[in-house]
Amino acid sequence: MSDNSTSKFISLILRHKPETIGITLDEHGWANVDELIEGVSKTHPLTRESLEEIVRTDEKQRYSFNEDHSLIRANQGHSIPVDVELEKVKPPKYLYHGTGAKFTSSIDQQGLIPKSRLYVHLSSDYETAVKVGSRHGKPVVYLVNAEQMETEGYAFYCSVNGVWLTKRVPVKYLKQVDVTFVESSKIVSELKAVFEKEDAAEIAEETILPKHKWQDLQQALFSILQDDAFSENDYQIMAEIIWSAVLAGEKVDTETAIGLLYYRLGNENDPYGNNTIWSIAARLKDLDYANSEYNPLRDPVILKRLASLGIHISKNVNSSEA
């Protein structure tokens, strides 16, 4: 029997059903290691050495020993009432929740609830949320406004293996974001790694763009532009990459590109203020760069495309008087 099978059985015991092997957990979720090994060994081969190896190599870091390794517990994910002694922690501005498309109608009505668990589980990064969602079929990712939640009184905890926990997430703090699949998700990670570097756009064009198909790359760029967790500087880098693609003759999704770039970087009263995004709009729409009266933020086609992505320009785009 594989270590993976044994690990899953240990997870069942420490999170949900310790009675399956005739043991109990204390109020903080700890189980006696010798009792666990004895109970598990009746159906799954387990020694202290193999248990130590399972804990050490578990990719999700599900388990922890106490200081002298006489006790063991699951770090989170319990359905039985235990206190794993989590302390309140100030969360980042945004967190993510990955799920399957089949669950979205319920989430959109009642928000995120723990169901059989004690807490809702959240990820600190988009890529992890995509992986979590993929376990449930077609993945869907929700952006959680954790900063606003904490300001309004919701408590957050972070387990020792980096999973963020909270009791529930009401609908008003959730926003569904576009999911890029495996290849474009990798590209998002690669782009994030260069955002803080000087000449980030140039580095991305030289080291990242040549490795990927334009279709996958475009998906990744659009995903970033839809994600509130990135900065204005990051969005400007996306604009420069898209402009390079336009000049290279790539098949750019005109309405989506113009719409998202103007949503992030545009001004309704000054559509020419950002030279890069105006250049993109002028080239893709075949406009006179210097004399056109075209305004992307008043184009019904662009607004309709943004609305299909859940973005309503009148509420989000800088439209202060010029």
Give your account of this protein's structure.
Strand 7 (157-158) and strand 8 form a beta hairpin. The longest helix is centred in the C-terminal third of the chain and has 16 residues, at 232-247. The chain folds into 3 domains: 3-74, Orthogonal Bundle (Arc Repressor Mutant, subunit A); 95-177, ADP-ribosylation fold (Alpha-Beta Barrel), CATH 3.20.170.30; 182-316, no CATH class. The protein has 322 residues and is mostly helical. It has helices at residues 3-15, 33-40, 48-57, 104-110, 126-134, 146-151, 182-194, 200-207, 214-226, 232-247, 254-265, 275-284, 300-308, 313-316; strands at residues 31-32, 63-65, 71-74, 95-100, 120-122, 139-144, 157-158, 164-166, 174-177. It has 14 helices and 9 strands. The chain is elongated. Strands 1-3-2 form a 3-stranded antiparallel sheet.
